[in-house]
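Why run this: before we spend reagent on co-expression, it is cheaper to look at a predicted model of the complex and decide which construct boundaries make sense. The entries below are exactly what would go into the expression plan.
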Amino acid sequence: MNYDVIIIGAGPGGIFAAFELMQKNPDLKVAVFEAGHELSKRHCPIDGKKIKSCIGCKSCSIMSGFGGAGAFSDGKYNITNDFGGTLYEYIGKSEALELMRYIDKINLKYGGEGTKLYTTAGSRFKTLCIQHDLHLLDASVRHLGTDINYIVLENLYADLKEKVDFFFDTSVDSVSVIEGGYSVKCKAGEFSAPDCVISVGRSGSKWMEKVCAELEIPTNSNRVDIGVRVELPAAVFAHLTDELYESKIVYRTEKYGDKVRTFCMNPKGAVVNENTNGIITVNGHSYEDPERQTENTNFALLVAKHFSEPFKDSNGYGESIARLSNMLGGGVIVQRFGDLIRGKRSTPSRIEEAFITPTLNATPGDLSLVLPKRILDGIIEMLYALDKVAPGTANDDTLLYGVEVKFYNMEVEVDSKLQTKYKGLYIIGDGSGITHSLSHASASGVHVARSIAENK
Ligand SMILES: Cc1cc2nc3c(=O)[nH]c(=O)nc-3n(C[C@H](O)[C@H](O)[C@H](O)COP(=O)(O)OP(=O)(O)OC[C@H]3O[C@@H](n4cnc5c(N)ncnc54)[C@H](O)[C@@H]3O)c2cc1C
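The model came back. Tokens follow.
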């Protein structure tokens, strides 16, 4: 065996698995294989001037490389079992929370000291929301911000690279079971170890499916979340974001009884493109540094769709809707709320005349030609409901960018150690379908590392 542990993927799951292995047993020989670049070489070519939209780089710097999909994220580490994944179903609620608090301590130690921890506990907004049939979920949120999140990653890498072998721009092609462990093949050669941790995130979803099929690891289909990113003047949500930073609010629509939720709130932030396997969707982030903040706040409004027999391909459904927006708009479409409810497409001049300046250069268009009626009706209902707790939300100039899709990996069958039916083969983070957030993915990495280190 070349290594004691092989980790595939250097997102938060892989990073924290490597980190914890080094804490528990610094003598272990650990290798991390990462399809993307090392942190300092990760640059998205979109500069808003020469390159305005996604050009489909071979390795997407937003999604891949050291830091994974989280590297340029807003760095919101939610400490909660209420959202962000179902890790607690495998390892128990108190351990999941304990691990998330542990991750928080490490983030503070590695550069996050001084960042703010927001909490919904005892918030007066809970009452205000419930009075309007809106439900505010419980969480503590450490907001690192895109800038500090990057510094934390830089510091973690500086520490880890002394102890761990990193192989960047090295996509693992296959994983096979060999006597006493696992062998991985990639352009750098063939490597083996008794323990192998797979943490390939969303961008590795197709590859993960292939590995599970080859190794006959059982999987289940997951849900897909479809909706829009809302952008409005920061003042509209300031009373909520100043106190809570991020509020996760759920609403059940009157018309269909569907649940619509707010997701990934970015006060004074910017709306950004996201490229998942060549499909351009929308996301958002914000900076801790006041100089880089904008006058707008953005957040997603999402409706979850889960399919059962005979149609199971939730992600395929989400992809088709995103493709439709790419077909009509050449990428992401933006529409004023006022235009949407009057059945008009937004035009460049209507967007220009609005009292808000969009932070993303998207194509003005008509989202009603893209989103299924049921989903769009739910979003419109939720915007009116939010208008009661944050008046101004349903103003004509509120911008809606579409589509935002949250794809989830199929859920892989693992036990309470996050181990597959093969001893020593672990699948963690977003690639397992169990987590879908920085804190849960990181916590899953620490969990497997402790279990591996215990048995060495
Ligand atoms: C723009 C954006 C903003 C976000 N903001 C937040 C936020 O504020 N808070 C939050 O909680 N979550 C946020 N998220 C989600 C969060 O980033 C993910 O939940 C988290 O990164 C998942 O971690 P992971 O380690 O499981 O996977 P990832 O971070 O996706 O990392 C997986 C890594 O594996 C690599 N890989 C894939 N296939 C292979 C292969 N075959 N061989 C080798 N390497 C491979 C990939 O290149 C990638 O670097 C955001 C996501 C995006 C895209």
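The first helix runs from residue 12 to 24. The two ends are 14 Å apart (CA to CA). Bring this page to Monday's planning discussion.
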